[in-house]
Write a sequence for this structure.
């Protein structure tokens, strides 16, 4: 919804965007499974039994049975994924592509030998080229459409209604960032909650510092939290290290970080808003990794507990946003601050009146390694809090080396706070935020705990 799609009027062309990807998720994942010889053999031996293992729609399964690639793409398939199905059948890419044109295999091959299809008349729908008009349909697709006319009409009506109201059937109005929240995310805090130790002398002052925040949260509950955190070698190992990654899935389960998964609710996402933000932010030249499968670790679940307590289900939707602060090079403070500004523009261009909070987590000073482990720098941390409130643009210029020297090697997590701060109204020329709560405490495990709430 609300995604800018200038490509919709290119004839005979489906762009595989976030909406298509969401629609085609299981169809494409099924296709991927055919990259294993053992799965191809099982699929060939008993197609129905193999298809039954996949949570695809009936229509997607019908499209697969018919080997109708235009139909499969209509249901969210992408050619590189569908090609695994074609390969399983022994088809070449030329045969697959040609099968979608309505031409015979020979005619398509001859066209390619003759120089390929001309772009003339095929740039915009309604010109007079040879790729205009509806896609070729298999007999199976035609029959499916005939027997599903009612459902199809309802779908078209629904899409029409969504366009009229600005999407999703909700009233017009835009999303806005109501506040930003900053907090450390120490795993021992989660363990104290899970093991019922919050009343112990060691922990009491820490949890007391978050009582006003929980009260404030009850009074100012957003619809969605955009939660900036770092994955701690949990979902991303050394096989893949995205600098910035946005979770676009419908839900995210708590990870097992080695102690068993934390007994906290699963996190419910907001795929539509997340996809919109991904598209908008990437179009503003920030390269985000789009993640549809993500288990969330203490970096995300501990802040959730600190602000919402321990409910049966989290009372808000959450868009997890990961920043690499584990393996250098990690993004600079300036880059994070600019990214926050891009995220603000993205959220405010979403045409549903959602209240969104943006959180920055991690820090403050801590070092978890080597002879310097245990480093704490109260003065530097408190100066960081002062500057984050009053002069974030200047603070964003602080180089990595200062974080490492002054706040410890793991204190670099603090750059993530600059993403949340960059998304506040004053950075875009609006009024200064209101400080609702400030808290600082040493120690939690190895870490200095800092916490701020800034309201727009
Ligand atoms: C600790 C702090 C962290 O931020 C983290 O990710 C892991 C451990 C600690 O203080 O123990
Ligand atoms: Fe951490």
């Amino acid at each position: 919804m609300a995604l800018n799609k200038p490509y919709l009027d290119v004839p005979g062309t489906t762009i595989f965007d976030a909406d298509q990807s969401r629609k085609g998720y299981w169809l494409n994942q099924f296709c991927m499974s055919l990259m294993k010889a053992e799965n191809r053999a099982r699929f060939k031996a008993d197609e129905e039994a193999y298809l039954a293992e996949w949570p695809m729609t009936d229509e997607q399964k019908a499209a697969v049975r018919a080997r109708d690639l235009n139909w499969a793409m209509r249901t969210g398939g992408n050619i590189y994924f569908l090609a695994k199905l074609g390969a399983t059948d022994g088809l070449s890419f030329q045969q697959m592509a040609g099968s979608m044109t309505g031409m015979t295999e020979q005619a398509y091959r001859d066209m390619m030998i003759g120089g390929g299809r001309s772009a003339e008349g095929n740039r915009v729908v309604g010109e007079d080229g040879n790729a205009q008009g509806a896609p070729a349909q298999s007999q199976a697709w035609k029959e499916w459409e005939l027997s599903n006319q009612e459902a199809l009409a309802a779908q078209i009506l629904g899409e029409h209604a969504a366009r009229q109201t600005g999407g999703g059937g909700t009233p017009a109005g835009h999303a806005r960032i109501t506040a930003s929240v900053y907090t450390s995310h120490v795993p021992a805090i989660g363990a104290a909650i899970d093991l019922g130790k919050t009343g112990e002398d060691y922990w009491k002052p820490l949890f007391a510092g978050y009582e006003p925040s929980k009260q404030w949260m009850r009074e100012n509950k957003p619809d969605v939290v955009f939660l900036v955190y770092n994955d701690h070698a949990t979902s991303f190992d050394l096989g893949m290290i995205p600098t910035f990654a946005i979770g676009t899935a419908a839900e995210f389960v708590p990870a097992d970080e080695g102690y068993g998964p934390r007994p906290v609710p699963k996190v419910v996402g907001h795929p539509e808003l997340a996809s919109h933000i991904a598209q908008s932010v990437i179009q503003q030249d920030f390269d985000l990794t789009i993640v549809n499968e993500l288990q969330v670790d203490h970096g995300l679940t501990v802040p959730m507990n600190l602000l919402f307590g321990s409910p049966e289900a989290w009372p808000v939707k959450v868009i997890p946003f990961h920043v690499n602060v584990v393996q250098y090079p990690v993004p600079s403070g300036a880059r994070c601050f600019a990214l926050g500004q891009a995220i603000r523009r993205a959220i405010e261009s979403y045409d549903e009146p959602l209240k969104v909070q943006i959180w920055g987590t991690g820090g403050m000073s801590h070092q978890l390694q080597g002879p310097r482990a245990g480093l704490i720098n109260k003065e530097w941390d408190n100066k960081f809090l002062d500057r984050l409130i009053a002069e974030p643009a200047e603070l964003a210029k602080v180089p990595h080396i200062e974080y490492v020297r002054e706040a410890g090697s793991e204190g670099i997590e603090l750059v993530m706070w600059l993403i949340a701060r960059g998304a506040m109204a004053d950075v875009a020329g609006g009024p200064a935020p209101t400080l609702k709560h400030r808290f600082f405490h040493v120690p939690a495990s190895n870490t200095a705990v800092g916490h701020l709430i800034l309201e727009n």
Summary: Residues 185-188, 232, 362, 366, 368, 410, 445-447 surround 3,4-dihydroxybenzoic acid (ligand 1) (CB under 6 Å). The CA atoms of residues 205 and 270 lie 34 Å apart.
